[in-house]
Design a protein that fits this description.
Elements: H1 9-16, H2 20-26, H3 45-58, H4 67-74, H5 78-88, H6 96-107, H7 112-119, H8 125-136, H9 146-159, H10 165-175, H11 179-193, H12 197-204, H13 208-217, H14 222-229, H15 233-247, H16 254-266, H17 273-280, H18 285-298
Helix pairs in contact: 1-2, 2-4, 4-5, 6-8, 7-8, 9-10, 9-11, 10-11, 13-15, 14-15, 17-18
């Protein structure tokens, strides 16, 4: 059909003896589907609301949306639906292409607010400012010395449990005045904190599944949840990944592996496992990444160079 919105899915359902949702999920016909790329001047909030309402009705968290069904319901390109859903959730991938676009617009004198509007409905001007700061002030970082690592561990050991995790990080920041040393020191501190029993116990004492569901539904973010629990954010993101993995079968079908091979051949590294996971709909990001590594080691997938 010229427009998928004209398809009578009720009639299709009656004709084949399946539910409307089953028909939407199973239909693989995609000829004539329109593209849906974000353009601030033509962006339709009504279309966005329609897609989000469909996902909320048929795939409430923790269920992963079946984007083949979403694509058929909207009659729009499946990859565009995935990207738009991510943008609407406030997820934006800072690819090299996106950074180059930001740099070009900034050189033209366009404001941070307008650049943000050009990229996504949910990117903020502060995010653009941070992106420009990182690009304009590149730093060459080296590994910490043993003495520096001991200083970091000393600060963490002395203050963990006495002050909040954010305050511990701030104390490390103050200890290392040189930016080139501060960044690896902060990374070291956050990594060390994530292994401390005190912080892990705070996570274990919570309803981890409910927290993961809240994050996946957009009710909160991993950063907000980590701040509430007073733990390193990496512990919360790991919790969400584990939850998603448990909800998915650990067995890979031949069809799923075919999709993985096709995705790798069609894209360049670094791969977006978040996008592929959403496209596949049956495996978590972690499962996709681990399966790719296993297939690459076995020679089933060639080791492609990074772009």
């Amino acid at each position: 059909r010229e427009s998928g919105l004209d398809i009578d899915w009720v009639a299709v359902s009656w004709a084949v003896g399946l539910s409307e949702l089953d028909c939407l999920e199973l239909c693989r016909f995609s000829e004539g589907k329109a593209r849906w790329t974000y353009d601030p001047d033509t962006f339709s909030q009504e279309m966005a609301d329609r897609m989000e309402a469909f996902i909320a009705e048929h795939y409430p968290p923790p269920a992963a949306p079946n984007f083949n069904a979403v694509s058929n319901y909207m009659w729009l390109d499946i990859n565009d639906c995935i990207r738009m859903a991510q943008l609407l959730r406030g997820e934006f991938e800072w690819t090299d292409e996106a950074k180059d676009k930001v740099a070009r617009m900034w050189e033209q004198g366009i404001s941070h607010k307008e650049i943000a509007r050009q990229l996504s409905p949910n990117v903020t001007a502060d995010s653009i400012a941070q992106c420009m700061y990182r690009m304009r002030r590149p730093q060459q970082y080296t590994s910490l010395t043993l003495e520096e690592k001991q200083r970091v561990r000393g600060i963490v050991d002395e203050n963990s449990g006495k002050v909040s995790f954010c305050e511990v990080v701030e104390l490390v920041r103050q200890e290392f005045a040189c930016p080139k040393r501060r960044t690896p020191a902060l990374k070291c501190a956050k990594g060390y904190c994530s292994s401390i029993p005190l912080y892990r116990a705070r996570v274990e004492g919570e309803d981890k599944d409910q927290i993961a569901k809240d994050i996946l539904s957009g009710a909160t973010t991993a950063t907000e949840a980590a701040r509430r629990l007073d733990v390193p954010p990496v512990l919360v993101t790991a919790m969400v990944e584990k939850f998603q993995t448990r909800m998915c079968s650990s067995v890979w079908t031949d069809k799923e592996m075919e999709h993985l091979v096709e995705y790798v051949r069609a894209h360049t590294r670094p791969y977006s496992w978040k996008s592929f996971s959403a496209l596949l709909g049956t495996k978590s990001q972690r499962q996709c990444r681990l399966k790719f590594d296993a297939m690459r080691r076995s020679g089933a997938i060639p080791d492609m160079p990074e772009n």
